[in-house]
Every structure is written in C-alpha cells, then in structure tokens.
Amino acid sequence: MKSKVLEVRDLTVHFYTYAGIVKAIEKVSFDVYMGETFALVGETGCGKSVTARALTQLIESPGRIVGGEVYYTSDKGRVDLLKLSEEEIRKIRGSEIAYIFQDPQSSLDPLYTIGYQISEALYVHKRVENLKDGIKKAVEILRTVLMPDPEKRVSNYPHEMSGGMKQRATIGIGISNNPKLLIADEPTTALDVTVQTQILDLIKDMKERYGATVILITHDMGVVAGMADRVGVMYAGKIVELGDVYAIFKKPLHPYTQGLLRAVPNPLVKIERLETIPGTVPSLINPPEGCRFSPRCPLASSICREKTPELVELEDGHFVACHNVG
Ligand SMILES: Nc1ncnc2c1ncn2[C@@H]1O[C@H](COP(=O)(O)OP(=O)(O)OP(=O)(O)O)[C@@H](O)[C@H]1O
Ligand code: NI
After folding, report:
1. Cβ(139) to ligand 1 under 6 A?
2. For the chain, what is the mean pLDDT?
3. Cα–ligand 1 centroid distance for 50 (angstroms)
4. From atom 18 of ligand 1, which residue's Cα is the shortest distance away?
5. What is the pLDDT of residues 270-292, one digit of tens each?
6. Do residues 147 and 172 make contact, with C-beta atoms less than 8 angstroms apart?
7. Region 305-316: what's the mean pLDDT?
8. Stretch 173-184: mean pLDDT, rounded?
9. Residue nearest to atom 27 of ligand 1 (CA)
10. Nearest 5°: phi and psi at 322?
11. Domain limits of the chain?
12. According to CATH, what is the number of the domain 4-96+179-320?
C-alpha cells in the first residue's frame, strides 16, 4: 500500500465579488500518493488553479478558503496545511512544497539575475549560508535543469532568456530545495510545442531523480496520457471522476470525461482548449442545481437537476459522481 502525501477533504473556496459569490471550488476531495504524478484536468475556469493554490493557502482576497482540510504527511508527521499560521506555511511553501506556474515571466523578478533568484530561494530556506554560496549552487541547479551554458546564464536577467530557458529557470527555483511535492500549474502552456516536450521530460526526470511527488495541472489530455499515474477530472468547481490513468482513458465513467476524450480522438494529438463539448461552462455564481454538468449532459434526468451526486468508488480506486452510473 502506497503512503499518502496529501489527503484533500471537502476543499471549498469562494470569491466574494461585487457580482456575487463565485463558488470556485466546492467540496473537492482527493488523495495524492507518494512518488506519483497526479493530474488535475478540465476545461478553463473549472477550478484547477484555485485548487492547486488553496492547498498551501495561496488564495488572495476577494477569495477565501471557506471549508475543508488538506492533510500533508512528511517525516515530521501529519498536519492540516490549512490550519498552519502564515509563517508556518511559508516555511513549507518553496521548500517541501514547490510550485511551477504557467507563465515563467510572472514567476521571475525582472530586476534580478536568475542566479540571484535561485540563490535567494536557497538562502530563505537556509540551504546555503550566504547568497554567494547560493550562486555557486545555482550553477549546479541550472545544469540539472539542462540550461545551456549555465555558468553564463546564471548572471542573465530574465529578459535575456527565451521562454523555454525562463521556464527551466523557474523549475530550477522550484526544485532548488528538493521539494517533496511539486505542483506544476500548466507548466508548458505558454511554450512552443517542441519546448513543451522538453519541459515535460525535465519534470519527469526531476521526479525520478529526487523521488518527488507531482501534481500536474493541465487542460491537455495528451499531457495527462504521457505524464500521469492518476487523474482527477474537474468540472465547474467539482471533481467528477477520479482514478488510475488507464481506467480513465479505457473506461471513462462520467459523461463529461467521455466528452473530453471524444474531443481528443488520439490522446497524443495536442489541442489548445477542450471546448468541443456542446454548451458552455456554467456560472459559478449561480451554479446549476443538482449535478453541475446536467445542463450539458446527454443523460440528464430529473434527479440530476435536483440532487448533487456524491463522488463514490465504483471500482477499485475509480470514483465517479454521476446518478446514471453505478
Ligand atoms: N480573483 C478572482 N476573483 C473572482 N473569481 C475568481 C478569481 N480567481 C479565480 N476565480 C474564479 O474561480 C474559478 C476557477 O478558476 P481557476 O483559475 O481555478 O480555473 P482553471 O481551471 O485553472 O482555468 P484555466 O484552465 O483557465 O487556468 C473561475 O470561475 C474563476 O472565474
Ligand atoms: Ni488555471
């Protein structure tokens, strides 16, 4: 039995906007096992990034985590990350749990060299005694992320690098403290196709080298097929299906997952957006009653419009939230 690094329970985040309360994610629950790649997949706006950020309390006003628990197990024991103080969670974030975001531009500070930024990440978490030692270590880290000419690149500013190099640098910052859990939010979406493959290979490589656990966020089923061990499919702020990657691709149970896969006849073909399912994603201010997918679902009946289906385990490790399956 594999051990659990994360146990996410009923995680709920709302945004208090002038237009109303955006119920961005509602009672999201999933586990992440040690050493695996867990993918969160779904259309734009379904709540993937909010989920990823909420795991370490990275939700800013007007957003608020209104419910749930995120149990994190390390050699120091098991804690609910949502109960930690700002200072305690900051210690974990960037060291044990690191993020790689979609846009390397926004994760890098234009005013400092890449070497300085890696060095600072190391210094803040007390991996090096001073920033100068950090710069030396930064060259090694840049070499690990296969940055060309790391001795030279270490003194580059972000604007002196290509998009792919910048993403390598942010991965370098991400892995600088040997994180146990790496959360990659669409790490390749902003990059050219060839660079995308290289960066995904790099993440795989880092994972193997350091035995890290990865949460990968993507809207691309091809990326899921190539990278994930297990998959959570999100729709309109909820997880609708959860299971082993083979089960999800071979025997998708939820009509939404089936739609997603029909939209990608060959999972190895890259597509930009999963928008081929008829209808549009519902408003999260006034989400549909009952199952949130019911307005778009070919199988929807009256119970679907009245009662929210629970996520239940139908087969070993394969969960689905649908009144029509089971
Ligand atoms: N600051 C905010 N204020 C109001 N609503 C927000 C805010 N941030 C996110 N949301 C809402 O939360 C919902 C989930 O957003 P999220 O960014 O998690 O989606 P996503 O699945 O990551 O989409 P994408 O694939 O486009 O990155 C969206 O409906 C969005 O409008
Ligand atoms: Ni996102």
Report:
1. no
2. 91
3. 6
4. 47
5. 555 544 677 777 889 999 999 99
6. yes
7. 95
8. 91
9. 44
10. -155, 130
11. 4-96+179-320, 105-178
12. 3.40.50.300
